[in-house]
## 1
Amino acid sequence: MRKPLIAGNWKMYKTHLEAMRLVQGLAHELAEHDFDAVEVVVCPPFTSLRTIQTLIDSDRYSFGLGAQNVHVEKEGAFTGEISAPMLKALDVDYVILGHSERRELFGETDEGVNAKVKVCWANDMTPIVCCGETEAERETAQTETKVERQIRGAFKNVTPELARKTVVAYEPIWAIGSGKTATPQDAQTTIAFIRGVLEDEYDTGVAQEMRILYGGSVKSGNAASLMSQPDIDGGLVGGASLEAAELAAIVKAVK
Ligand code: 13P
């Protein structure tokens, strides 16, 4: 059984003070939540990681903590970058890798994502590997080719032992922040395809253990129908994760 995961990707939103209020609000909303049944992770900007780590520790919150990127080197003259040991020292559990915004705006490549997957595991943090097609790729029936290339690239020379614990997020780019969601059936079809690629890359056991999330305009209103699909193991939530009640409602929609 794969444990469902709802991860909030806060992108470049919230100061550390706002982040603190959001996490406290979320804790209030989820006071009765069974975190063993559905895992909840928040991925704030780097500037809020320390604040939230402190809150999680002092108030014994059961949220996981995620970062949105990492550099592959452990230290050095890389102005503006953050290393994996720095994140690990803040008790970061997850790192989002290869988000389409990083690929499109910051030139992230499949090779780069692959290197970061290995660096995350070398520092005992779980990668959340993102993939997804553009609207033009979807319209020209290239969705499968695109996500297959991204998945095979990200997992190149990653051992089955590490792959089985790695999280994948399928985020069709046209659905991100657009209010357009993939239908539950379309999301299920592509995610089942991704699981098939992982099965081919590894084996059935590994592919069946891996959690694959859907991302792209997930809201409280559509969460239940998406999350009830057999291959969808949770959500990577952007805009709707910036409001405590809305994110909590998504978590509660997962059965
Ligand atoms: P939205 O939920 O705002 O569409 O963003 C999805 C996303 O990019 C999460 O990583």
## 2
Amino acid sequence: MAILTINAGSSSVKFTLFLGDDDAPRASGIVERIGLEGTRLQYRRADGKTIVSPVVVADADRAVEVILSALVHPEHGGIGGVREIEAVGHRVVHGGERLTRPVVVDAEVRAYLESIVPLAPLHNPHHLRGIAACERHIPHAVQVAVFDTAFHATLPRHAFLYGIPPAFYAEDGVRRYGFHGISHKYVAAEAARFLGRAPAGLRLVTCHLGNGCSLTAVRDGRSVDTSMGFTPLEGVLMGTRSGDIDPAAVLYLMERRGFSTAAMNDLLNRQSGLLGLAGVGSNDVRDVLSAARNGNAQAELAVEMFCYRIRKTIGAYAAVLGGLDAVVFTAGIGENSPEIRRRITAGLEFLGLFLDAERNEAAASGPRAIHAAKSPVALLVIPTNEELEIVRETRRALAARTGA
Ligand code: ADP
């Protein structure tokens, strides 16, 4: 039995193939630069060897075809034939209010996903195309949708509502949905396992710090608050997103500068954050840190703002949870930048967070503890694995379907 995971985006389709109950992928890769010059397939075999080949792909449908032919390739492929794929687990950013757990995609689910496209116009249309392509090319397989918003469905009302009249929630769906849920759920479960504790009773703050950044307060294995909101723009500072900003400042700028909605959206989502603040032409924290080390004061300020907002949110979530058992770092920055982890945690000793400098700096890649022996609160680095979480959810959805 093989399960394929698919993450279809605006210009790429990522895939991972899993066999049986094996948590190690049999093959993985990406078709990238779809619709641009230099479209290519990167295909990674189980032995780690990566093959890169130029491909002619204009859309998700053709991308899926290309992926399937790579997967059945007699030399590099992971399966003998497409028929071996029993299910496809699709990463879908937005499940709206209704889809709060992984679901088998049927006409009703598809129609609901179509109806909530306005909530996630940059993501859901691409996911729907990915689903349609798999339905066409792997018609016998069960298509399962796994949602980034689902983990946050447990937010209490007082945490997910905004302070505007309730009609805008009831009629327009304006509320905090939260994102990165697949990652937050995975690292929260792995953190409990690492600590040798049951999720029940555990109070965690999970920090997903990649290009997009969000923090989640997790109690008893459930999300109780999260920093991203109606869209992924809210919360802490990110690579190119502003994070929190007074909405009145947005209105003021639109009026004063005559910005259109699209221009303002571009400014807040793509020209802000580390990119816009540091002004070093990069949203990569490594470039901003290196400019700061070379004396660039604006880059230093951007790093300080980045860490400050995360520190502030950890403090807020300590209040939400009534104390902390562990803070977990994950994703590109969280897993790989000791300097950012050090700067975030500096000053949080009053909450019982004591970093161990040596453990923090040590070159390592797996799940690890980076707190001092005397630290009452654990500080963990847990590499995220969204594909593994998607395949686990897909297996669960299949089992539920067959009543196994
Ligand atoms: P995405 O949110 O796109 O999935 P990732 O989780 O891969 O992103 O994170 C990408 C970011 O991680 C990069 O922009 C960079 O800032 C940071 N990053 C990646 N590798 C390192 C590293 N070795 N040291 C510091 N930061 C890193």
